[in-house]
Amino acid sequence: MSLIKKTRTKICGITRLEDLRAVVDAGADALGFVFYPPSPRYLTPEAAALLIAAMPPFVTSVGLFVNTNIEELQAVIKLAPIQLLQFHGDESAQECHRLASAVNRPFIRAFRVKPDTSAADLLECEAEYQAASPLFQGLLLDTFVDSFGGSGKVFDWSLIPKELAPRVVLSGGLSVQNATDAVVGVRPFAVDISSGVELSKGVKDAAKVRAFVQAVRLADSMQDNQN
To answer: What is the DSSP string of 37-76?
Structure first.
């Protein structure tokens, strides 16, 4: 009997302790905390520290940053010791490396996919970041919108080259309704959701979180049956 591949799940935009507990209980692998002040899901480092302290082992804390600088990043990490950085702004590969090195944390890079993005663009971006930093751990693919942060909109998943898909985090417009199709169709390493499992901005819906994780698990079991 073959082992079922587990697609990792990240729930982003955690702002409340009760949501953190519900997300962990649902079986999520990673929790995202937003350190971008214009976001309605923004957390102060002090508030994030209280939430991170309540996290169990083997669940990863991820900090989302947009066009931050070393001093700001160091101040956040000093109070809220997140495990993984997520850069979601205009940072270059070299800037991401400098930032991550300053706090000795691995990072993922958000790539905001446009309608004219090609498979070659995605592979080229990954290669650029791999060459720039040993701390780079992968791309998070989101839909391009004019503002920073999550888009809540789906992009054309067929743009993702098959050889890249097993290494990416798929984001952008995911929901309970499309999660199974997304995982079966793309076969990403992980999926990332925020607004798709919310009652309101920054407030999670525990039932939707459970249903989302279950939809991803269903996709994993379907893939196993196809192999």
So the answer is: TTSTTB--HHHHHHHHHTPPTT-EEEEEESS--HHHHHHH
Residue with tokens 């508030």: 47
The model's pTM? 0.93
Q: What is the pLDDT along the chain (227 residues), one digit of tens a residue?
A: 456 689 999 999 999 999 999 999 999 999 999 999 999 999 999 999 999 999 999 999 999 999 999 999 999 999 999 999 999 999 999 999 999 999 999 999 999 999 899 999 999 999 999 999 999 999 999 998 765 555 567 888 999 999 999 999 999 999 999 999 999 999 999 999 999 999 999 999 999 999 999 999 999 998 666 65
Strands annotated E in the chain: 8-11, 30-34, 60-65, 84-87, 107-113, 136-143, 169-170, 190-193, 198-200, 203-204
Kindly list the catalytic residues.
12, 142
Provide the 10 A C-beta neighbour count for residue 128: 15
Closest by CA to 188, choosing from 73, 72, 29, is 29
